[in-house]
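hey team, just a heads up i'm posting the complex here instead of the shared drive bc the drive is being weird again. everything in one block, sequence lines first with there labels, then the predicted structure for the whole assembly after. its two chains so it's a bit long, scroll down
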Amino acid sequence: MLILTCPYCGVDAEETELAPGGEAHLKRFGPGASDEEFRDYLFARENPKGVHFERWRHAHGCGKWFHAARCTMTLEVFGTYPAQTTKPPKAIREAITAKRPGWTWREFE
Amino acid sequence: MSTRIANQGRLIDRSKPVRFTFNGKSLQGYAGDTLASALLANDQMLVGRSFKYHRPRGIVASGAEEPNALVGLGQGETFEPNQRATTTELFDGLTAQSQNHWPSLEFDIGAVNSAFARFLPGGFYYKTFIHPRAFWKHVYEPFIRQSAGLGKAPKDRDADTYEHFYVFADLVVIGGGVAGLQAAKAAGETGARVLLIEQTAHWGGRAPVDGGEIDGMAPEDWIAQTLDALRAMPNVTLRARCMGSGVYDHGYVLGYERLTDHAPETAGPRHRLWRIRAGQVITATGAIERPLSFAGNDVPGVMLASAMRDYAVNYGVAPGRRVIVVTNNDDAYRTAIALKRAGIDVLRVLDARTSGGGALMEEAKAQGIRIDCGRAIAKVTGGKRVAKVAICAQEGQGAALEEVACDAVAMSGGWSPVVHLWSHCGGKLIWDDAWAMFRPDPARAPTGADGRPFVTAAGAANGELTLGATLADADAAGKAAAKSAGFKPRRIRTPQGSVTDEAPLVPVWLMPRAAKVELRAKAWLDYQNDVKVSDVQLAAREGYESVEHTKRYTTLGMATDQGKLSNINGLATLSEALGEAIPQVGTTTFRPPYTPISFGAIAGEARGAVFQPLRRTPIHDWHEAHGATWEPVGQWRRPYTYPQNGETPHDAVMREVRNTRQAVGMLDASTLGKILVRGPDAGRFLDLLYTNMMSTLKPGKCRYGLMCSENGFLMDDGVVARIDEETFLCHTTTGGAEHIHAHMEEWLQTEWWDWQVYTANVTEQYAQIAVVGPKARAVLEKLGGMDVSKETLPFMAWADGTLGGIGVRLYRISFSGELSYEIAVRAGQGRALWDRLTQAGAEFGMMPYGTEALHIMRAEKGFIMIGDETDGTVIPQDLGLGWAISKKKEDYLGKRAQQRSHMTDPTRWKLVGLETLDGGVLPDGAYAVAEGTNANGQRNVQGRVTSTYQSPTLGRGIAMGLVLHGPDRMGEVLEFPGTDGKISKARIVDPVFYDKDGEKQNV
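-- predicted structure starts here --
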């Protein structure tokens, strides 16, 4: 039962208010993509023990999608931020670095 | 003989006798008894039979860890199986039945299993019953079914009520022993909101029984004083009979409060589930004594030493008159002393340690108790209760030195801190060699959202087993946790508990150390699941190295007690067999709940009518008044049909279809999803959502559209109407409205967030009524107000206007193949319009029809239904819907997926119509068989039925199905075996059975 802060409405939302949306920062591949690109876009997912970026929707609240950066092992939340971005914002990445120096996740570090 | 003793029993009130029954026998106890203590007071030593061998079993423990004394409580609608007698408070009129025996507790046929024990070794599920194959059905399975499962599920509906509490606290202290009380006090002094919960009805835990002094007081007095102090603090809440069930992510804690189990006549809910958000959690959950593994350690009358002490001191019950105590540590001497003080003969203390114990041993000796050091129990004999004990040297194979007749044995193998709640959310353990136990590792505590620890173990639960150390640890834990929760600890005095000089424990995992195999095969580790030392050793020999695998293979620790007594002994046995150290072998995972909690508490109020909301259309009451039978669709309830004059539902459906096709019918279509999509980029957005082109739709027109997931599969369909240049109204299926709206929002917010589009789910803002049939136009013209002619409002057009004085939006769309209008109206006027339509339609023979008539008419026209023709693996191309997929668009959701080789495979099953040769109705979901068999020896299949109905229009059964190369096989006959063994034959035909050219809907 996580608590995540919705970056839109500012509510500290219980997990029961939220709907999970899987891995964050996926790049969409459509017509013209290779079989491998499309397969990875649909199915290949990170499963880290540690720093992870996830999509959540404040489904029983303001209805907005947002991203959460958190540690899957310790349940620590490094921060949440709006979903309208293709990469974790600098402030989030710095917050993670302060707690987990040398972290990497996909192409981000 | 197990009896009541005088001058003891601090928890019972001898002035208040209480009557109860056990297996129909009327017995008497006292107010304050548990069912277990009252049974023992009545010399009811035998309380159940074991799971596998049906061995006679008695009460072993005095608390939540009890594995044997499980009973069925209550009767009829209050019956509940598998309740622990040790945690059941006695009340007048309690009825209990023992479990797992047949035909009676005293004489049990299943006990014959014991004689065949060698056929039921560890992992017997996986090997004994495999061969010969034919034996499975007639021998093995009936045997397992007969012997499997504890207790019986209740048959009646639960008459009790339950509720949930939502609570926020800075600090939750779980456990109300002296550690929990002190931790709560230390934290409460800081001003923090503290919630202290205790699973039993009594505060103070074991301290009053175990003795010693706190600040110069008897523990009982210190407890009373501390309780007074806590109750005086407005920021502290205390709840007894409330178990800490689980600790979860980010400080979420579940508490399980039993409100009326001890007083069933009390009004109000029976159980309450506390859903707590805590800043910090202190687990002051105490410790549990471990049994010793010797042959016959499961004979009724063999008990944990601490439990026997509890029964004597708390309830004034002597489980035996002639007792032998066996131990590897000093604590059991407290039992010997307490029993002696209660006037019970303590024949012998067998101390497995060659050098014996410390101060407590000297005290026992001084009271004249005989103590034999380096001694062990070779074997306990007795059928339904202890008769005698064979004594041997601990260092040896079990050769008996002497035999002593006795009627009870008190055993102590040391103590294990209750680390369950610490471990639930990731707290790690370290092995404590001195006490031979796992204890919480404070360096690896469960962490919260801020990355800092949020659980602190305190007192015995933290491995501080002596009174003085427990109190000091709890005081420090309370102060530290309050500080972590943001409060300033006050400098209050730490209470001083007396310290007894105890000699170190010596681990004894098998008694005697080199016990022969016949002894090991009678030395129980897990009483409830009947797992013995020999079973775990066998598992190790068979190659089981992981404790998690061994657990599942032998079922050690998998019973309802979740191994509270057996886990440590079991893994120590495994580690010895593997020749590895205990910490290397590790523990199995501790999972919530700590002890089983009721389904009722989990459900709370969410049952019956309030289980989930019922959505009603504005016309719902009319349907109800007109005798509709209902079909649940999502959270809606839609009329299935409206039987008249004693018609069967089937006849009513047939009539509704005929009447609609021949005259006119009306349908409440309000549940249909309606989503408004608006903005400069709305057309572009819908082009990506639908497989068709929506941006080219002209205002005033409608278009049928398909929506696919990014994986290519068809997920929803419906008619889209363009309202104006920037506005579209998308109709969805009834069940799809919410998730299709969410789907739109997901793509808008997370992929095309710079597009100017907004969406609104307006499903409930409108009522929608379909008027369908050749006379539909006449009905609307009678109402009057707008031109509904073919010229002004052709098929697939819409217009705003009035009908009968009510503002409407009128769509010329059809899901039946008939001339059809769907009339949308503001929800508040839905019923008024429906009433006016029924009046206007009367002279034309208009009747309402329900969802089944709707389904039949759409199937007669070959229209697909989401959820019938689709199941999440079907793409539009499978359904002959290629015409609804734009070839011009570069992209839409699902387009790339539909280009994958599996999606373009010509052997994908395709939609066809199916016409039975005998005119009957095909079984729903039936498979068409093909030649040959597959790798599993099953018949090959070549298609399946997706929709099947009796068509009143055609006077025969019709069906739709997906068939291998179906559209290329028109006229071929397929065979569909039913579950009744009969084979139905059906011919492949065009899926459009009725009005193939669509002339009727275009008039």
